Structures are given as C-alpha cells and as structure tokens.
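Try this one yourself first.
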C-alpha cells in the first residue's frame, strides 16, 4: 500500500468516525510550500473520538502497533500516526485547520496552519532532542514560506522556554 493510499484510508476512517482531524508532520509541510520526504502520515485527531476512530482503522486493515493517551501508531503497509488532541490548545488547532491549497497532495484533507505546525515541532524536539536539527530546519522553511501568527508561535515557544531560539530563526 502506498503512503498516499494509506493516508486516504485513514482520512476515510476518521471521517466515518466523525473525528475532527488534520494532517500534521511531513505531509503538512508539503502542502505549506516545503516538500520534504516522509515515510509516514501524521494526523492530529480529537481524542473524544478515539474509540470510534480505532474501530474504523481496524475495519480498514490497520493494526495498532502502539498506543498511549497521547499517540497511536498504526501499521498497514504504510505507517499512520495519530497525535491525540487532549488539551484545549490542540483542539483549538483542529478548529483552525483549513482545507489545503494543494488538493493534488492531500485530496481535500484538512491541514493545520503553519503557526500551529511550528508549535507542534517545538514540542516534538523538546520531547525528543534527536529531532532538533530536522525540526528547526522545518520551522525555518515554514517561516520562509508562510504567513505566521507570531503571537501564537511566541506563546508556544515560551511554554517550552524556546522563544529566543525561534526568534533567532525568524531573524534569519
């Protein structure tokens, strides 16, 4: 199964579960003007719809490889990851998700805006420092290619004591 087909099957499963969701990660970067290779598809999914989403994913042949309160990792022939929106801030991200401007890539699947993706990237490298260089490069490209809500990004960055680093990227 190609990554694109797996993405469409997961989107279909999330729609069937009526779960608010949006693309994040490498696929979102492609829509936001920064094509980058990726080997999985990442979704932000409203956590209140978790059980229905998992049932729908299984019905489409995906196997749950790992699950926690925060994430679910699915495997079919291509990996799909769900980051669950458990908190108000991540649920607000879903409310701001938009139909992408590159339907040839995501075929109408909502995508988070660049400012929210930056917030998730900051959290990702804080949680896993091995991601630092790639996530900073992604943030730099998002800054260069998108309109950014700097107040929102500053709030995300300050939550992790990262505003000085992000501000330096903005200045470049």
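Now uncover the answer:
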């Amino acid at each position: 199964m190609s990554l694109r087909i797996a993405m469409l099957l997961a989107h279909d499963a999330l729609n069937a579960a009526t779960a608010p969701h949006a693309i994040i990660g490498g696929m979102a970067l492609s829509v936001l003007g920064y094509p980058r290779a990726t080997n999985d598809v990442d979704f932000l999914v409203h956590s209140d719809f978790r059980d229905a989403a998992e049932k729908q994913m299984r019905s489409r042949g995906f196997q749950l490889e790992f699950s926690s309160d925060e994430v679910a990792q699915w495997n079919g022939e291509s990996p799909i990851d769900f980051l669950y929106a458990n908190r108000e801030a991540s649920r607000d991200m879903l409310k701001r998700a938009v139909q992408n401007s590159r339907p040839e890539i995501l075929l109408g699947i909502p995508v988070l805006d660049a400012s929210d993706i930056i917030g998730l990237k900051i959290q990702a490298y804080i949680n896993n420092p091995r991601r630092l260089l790639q996530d900073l490069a992604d943030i730099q490209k998002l800054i260069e290619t998108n309109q950014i809500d700097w107040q929102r990004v500053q709030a995300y960055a300050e939550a992790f004591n990262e505003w000085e680093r992000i501000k330096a990227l903005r200045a470049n």
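Discussion: The first strand starts at residue 21 and ends at 24. The first helix runs from residue 3 to 16.
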